[in-house]
Amino acid sequence: xxxxxxxxxxxxxxILIFNNFLAQKTPEKLPxxxxxxxxxxxxxxxxxxxxxxxxxxxxxxxxxxxIPKKMTFLNKNAQVKYQDMQIDADYISxxxxxxxxxxxxKQDSLGKIIEPVITTQAGKKYETNEFSYNTKTKQxxxxxxxxxxxxxxxxxxxxxxxxxxxFAMRNADYTTDDYFIKKKDTAADYFMRAxxxxxxxxxxxxxxxxxxxxxxxxxxxxxxxLPFAILPFSDKRAxxxxxxxxxxxxxxxxxxxxxGYYQPIGEHFDLKVLADIYTKGSWxxxxxxxxxxxxxxxxxxxxDIGTMVRGIKxxxxxxxxxxxxxxxxxxxxxxxxxxLTFSASVDVVSxxxxxxxxxxxxxxxxxxxxxxxxxxxxxxxxxLKLPVTITGTASYSQNFATGFADLRLPQMNVAINQFYLFKxxxxxxxxxxxxxxxxxxxxxxxxxxxxxxxxxxxxMWDKMQTGLKNNISxxxxxxxxxxxxxxxxxxxxxxxxxxxxxxxxDPVKNVTVDEINKNFTGFSTFTTTASLQTTLYGMMxxxxxxIVEAVRHMVTPSLGFSYSPDFSSPGFGYYxxxxxxxxxxxPYSIFEKGIVGSPSIGPVGALNFSxxxxxxxxxxxxxxxxxxxxxxxxxxxxxxxxxxxxxxxHPWSLFSINGQSSFFNSKLTVNTSLTLEPYKIxxxxxxxxxxxxxxxxxxxVQGFNVQLSYPLSSEIFGEKTDYAKKYSSKGEVxxxxxxxxxxxxxxxxxxxxxxVNANYAYSKGLNRFGSKIASIGLDGxxxxxxxxxxxxxxxxxxxxxxxxxxxxxxxxxxxxxxINFNWVPFGQYKVYDFFIGIKANILSDALKYKxxxxxxxxxxx
Length: 861
Known about the structure:
- The protein is mainly beta.
- Helix content is 5%, strand content 59%.
- It has a domain at 478-641.
- The chain is elongated, with a radius of gyration of 43 Å.
């Protein structure tokens, strides 16, 4: 035993001596200025440099430390926090020797990752299957990493983090499928695959830079390749090139459509310039500007300028047409300035713009059927203490059928708010005197009717007319005998103009000549009116137990008398006479063809009548809580006419009857109008135009119109099904919601709509043979699935027995992208249009495909 103790003591001494020998170092020379009694370095404890820059915090359900290997193992709900990074995983290992943190997601029995590793750094979350991080170099490698950026997500087979700014990815997919991002589906409906991606991140923005990138739809590769892609992820707008579509057409050659550039301008503006280029000479330029200032104003400006070239120069089929469109829309926030408002709705186009065969959009939205185009710019000024409103307007109205346009520039209206002429002593206005109201205002107009090629040229300014009108209106009313309302009114119109008419017959040229004289003149007219009206009610009740319980009839009769003198008499000087080609004296107004109109011809002392009717009935109804419901027979049925006591001939006016009604729970709407001529129309043999005789009582139909509209839907032909109560289970099939019955068949609300409208119009006038228009139209849609929709519209002309404008289309909401198809199979414009594009703003201009036919003269569809 003694030997054993001595042996152990000897071993300890040897170890101590050996350790002391290893610990010794050669003393370093001290600087000369260091005093001798300074503690030498060989007696100082030297601490090793720490490999970690911060405290490494860990936690887990099961932690184990391997001291010899300097390893730490964390199992079950493992978490590591280091600086601004946090790692959550099912398993984490920490290697102090290699400065390496390794994390792995939760595995199932087959080793498949079922819960990912979640790494959070600088507020950004990353999901991976496996993750390695070097605390010394701050580089990381991740497998199957999932990174959300802006509107999309990136999933890379392998990701290497070089630093906090640069990430390199291999075999990466990018998608904006919202269902896939929110993990409602395990497969994206589309993704863009790149073999190499570099993700560059900064504090303000991040972006993806890739090499060749290919689009996959439902995991199926498509032929859509991009040679490279740069996707900026930023809340701020960024300038960039807009990718065009391309193709080839026989009539215009190869083309690039939609090539352009986007440029933000300051905080409130942005500009997009697009161009279409065709190899045979056609081109279009489309600048687009948007602007907005919060709580102040917003607007858009668009232009479309181009030239269409078809055929070969020198041959008969060659044509060259230039078109343009200028569109400006501006609106002001109502809170910005209630006393000064400005608005604009400008849409100026060339006559043939909508017929431009380079663009089918105007066919599908039916702009090609437009016959008129209007533009208006309005500035309104109100005052806090003055009862005055000043409105300045510039308007431009185009007529595509005639090629002429009406331009009013500028037009100013000054309106004085209505006021009472006499103040009430008691505070409650009674009688005719205290109820007298005055309305007045001024209207200044500069007007010209001109052709498109004369705009703002000398020819247009020579035809410009200026007119000033003032209207003063006085009105009052009172109640007579409790049931009658008596009204009086007087209107005075004053007009000034800068041009008058001088008309004469030129026997040499055998034409009537109209000379426009530039002189300042005007006229004044006045009319007075008195009216009396009341309301009468009648009720007819039926026996108890009848289906119809009662019928109510409301009648609103009105009588009015109006008077105005004959302003064509010589004393006023508003009318002159000339000898026509037959030598007969013919009167004409010197203000004819002018902007302010002409005074009326002949005296007026007319008694006018109007009878308004409303007829309803009450019928039994089990569906109504009261047991009865109201049914409108006639919502309105109005009869109007008049007799002019001052007229020398034809004192009776035309009689008009207008009615409106609705049936089938107000679904079917019917509007009718009828015009009757009380005098006999006489026709000379062989002539188609007749004259009115003095024979009263021969009532003939001069005009008739009826319009019907009925909106049909799936709800009308059956009760609406409560799918939640009827079927026990609910689920999704590729983003579409269905209800499933006991046999696992899918059901959904297969709603449909069909609007039916019909129109019949007959017009005769003084012609022997009248003309008629009759058509029926259909407009509807139906859902094939919750997100498949078919829609269309058509019109059938019952007179020509031909189909008019017809459109058929379908659309598909495919979660992250849309598909649309439109087809016009009949008529002058036979075209189709197919579009598929990504919804997300970041890819909407880059990832899209469009195919369409184009209108060509005399070409079969």
